[in-house]
Amino acid sequence: MHPKIANLADGLKETLVALRRDLHCYPEPGWTEFRTASLVVKKLKELGYEVHYGSEVIKEEAMMGVPTPEELARRQKQALEQGADPEIVARMEGGKTGVMAILDTGRPGPTLGFRFDMDANDVEEARDPDHRPFAQGFASKNPGAMHACGHDAHTAIGLGLAEVLVGIKDELKGRIKLVFQPAEEGVRGARAMVEAGVVDDVDYMLGIHVGISNRRVGQVVCGGQGFLATTKLDVTFTGVPAHAGGEPEAGHNALLAAATAALNLHAISRHSGGATRINVGTLVAGSGRNVIPSRAEMKIETRGATTELNDFVRERAYKILQGAALMHEVEVEIKETGAALGGEVSASLAQKLADIAKTVPGVTEVAEFGPAGGSEDYSYFMARVQELGGQATYVILGTEIAAGHHNARFDINEDVLPLGVKFLGEVAYRLSTTLPPTR
Q: For 147, which DSSP code?
């Protein structure tokens, strides 16, 4: 391993821990990462990067599941009160909280891309002495929001990598792009950055995640596999209210339409081509026991082992929702509020990374491939890079965790922070200097 990278990364441990804990204190859910993104922009500019953010890296038409204007305004005000830079935040109006930084070495070589997600979960963090963040004073200060999936660690690792790369810039070739993505939770944010073209010139692309099924610091999976393609749907049925006893025939029952849909959605046929899923997560309807319900709202998700399998379920879900509305003579509105693709990592890149990982001090267990788990909208980045002739993979950095992901007691072993920076720094150095562009 390059000794300077190892020394730089090890020397950053206290800084990385402090940064991760600061981010943990101020979690911001998807499309509201105003303080987080402001901090990222400032640090990258201080390091000398060419930094793009806001509408430069977010295509508004491709944003999914954006909060209401009122919620955006509330979160923006909160971020400013918690130290966000007003000028930077002003350029993120409407929730355009993505950031992309470029390090151009001025020497011929490949373009590398690294994706780091920044958003928090809609989780109320545990407040008891056995929960380390609370006991040590860095638990969430924002009610109803928590970094319960490790994205605070991802952001800290990304900024640590940025610092290490500047330290070895004279030895690198080509260009390196660091992509800080909003709204991964609910798989809402990646598509808007991809459609803005931020990775269209990338030859080698990496996404990372801490933990998942790898629960020891030192474990590295270089090709996370098994992404489920998914679509998130918000559905509203609108009918006509009426007195349930006096004039029931005058009503058009939105609740019954939703109930009809719910039962039939779960009756969608399985598929011989692979695993499929559908879930009606919520159904809220009605206003009183003696009123024909005029409104019903549902939150639904579909999943498939491939994009094609997910499309199979999604298309049938649309037909069932529309058919239920027709049966009960109500209107239906269907909004796609999140989505992710299926896909496979580039095997040759995962194998190259495995070879690199074996040279990194502190890495104790290396797997070329392993389960990524669930759905990840990094799949949009991966698919675009591969579609344009590049290679992409998904890296899992092992860490002990206090509780499962999205749990109110989630916490990590912070030793993963400098180790993650060290590994990614070595990857950037090796890919930059030893591999030609893939196209």
A: -
